[in-house]
Amino acid sequence: MNILQKVKSNMELSRQNAKLNAKKVLDEVLKNNLYYDLYKKENNLVVNIAKIEFLETKADKEREELENIKRKKEQVLHALNINPKDLEPKYNCKLCQDTGYVNDKMCACLKKAVTNELIKLSGMNLNPDRNFNNVNFGIFSDSVRANMQKIYDKLHTVTQKYPDTKIKSVYIAGNTGTGKTYLSECVANAFIERGFTVYYTTAFNLNNNFLKYHTTFDASKTQFLSPVLDCDALFIDDLGTEPILKNVTLEYLWLVLNERMQKGAFTFINSNLLTKELRDRYGDRIFSRLMNKSSSIILKIEGEDLRLKSIK
Ligand SMILES: [Zn+2]
Do residue 229 and residue 305 come from a single domain? Predict the structure, then answer.
């Protein structure tokens, strides 16, 4: 079962549960004879009104009667000390009533649930406080602050425009401790807020997934690659810290980058490696995928180690 199927089946369970709970309350209330009669009358009346209005005649009298019955039902409920709302299923999402779809489009709640699963699966803990509204530029030294602000602004714009932007990949180079991960999490959270599915992983874990995929020989192997290929936005933290495994690392990284680029899916990478080092380590094919001028942004973060700074 893939993640989407799993999430959908959980939603369906909770939807059925909400309906069942409402039905239980109704069954209890129907034991009251007065309510039972009103309930039957109401059902008959609804059918009658539909018939009358189908013939394009007015059903004013019947509609008035219907309102009357509804009022009486509420009075009975009140006397029984039951909240009328308890007769309605309590769905987690009012928009889609826990079906996951609104007008054939994935509801934001479904996308959010898929992302939660992806985050769990990737073993990462995205800090939701790391977002574009919360950045403390005071932490950067004077010489890099303006540049950081520019970088944040640029990436904020990309997250707000996607997918209506030609920018589909971002590569951030910078030394350890310059705030790359913080920035990456801001971008990831912005995608989540906009209802996109996000998979956030380290290059090290991603490489392990590649290896597991490569060494599994049954259908279960797809679980190691499909989240990486299928998510709307993929985040790879610290590219270059993983070991290069023969027939694995370069081959699968290329496959992932290429497939995502062809789909127009968003890929975000941060790394200690400058462009020349990147080319030396991963070769021309991967390099040119990441450095494609028309669809990529390449940014360099300057500055001292912020982690040292915050201890001072
Ligand atoms: Zn929904």
Answer: yes
Distance in Å, CA 194 to ligand 1 centroid:
14
Angle at 111 between CA 107 and CA 114, to 5 degrees: 140
The alpha carbon of 108 and the centre of ligand 1 are apart by a number of angstroms equal to: 6
Distance 45 CA to ligand 1 centre (A): 32
**Distance from the alpha carbon of residue 23 to the mean position of ligand 1, in angstroms:** 22
Give residue 216 CA to ligand 1 midpoint distance, Å: 36
Q: What is the pLDDT along the chain (312 residues), one digit of tens a residue?
A: 577 888 999 999 999 999 999 999 999 999 999 999 999 999 999 999 999 999 888 889 999 999 999 999 999 999 999 999 999 999 999 999 999 999 999 998 998 898 888 887 777 778 888 989 888 898 888 888 999 999 999 999 999 999 999 999 999 999 888 889 899 999 999 998 887 889 999 999 999 999 999 999 999 999 899 989 999 999 999 999 999 999 999 999 999 999 999 999 999 999 999 999 999 999 999 999 898 888 999 999 887 666 555 543
Structurally, the chain folds into a number of domains equal to 2
CA of 104 to the centre of ligand 1 (A): 12
**296-301, strands of its sheet edge to edge:** 198-202, 233-239, 266-271, 169-174, 296-301
- Residue 265 CA to residue 167 CA, distance in Å, equals 10
Range of the domain at 46: 3-101
If asked whether residues 249 and 286 sit together in one domain, one would say yes
- Last residue within a domain, chosen from 74, 101, 128: 101
Q: How far apart are CA 60 and CA 200, in angstroms?
A: 59
- The pTM assigned to this predicted structure is 0.74
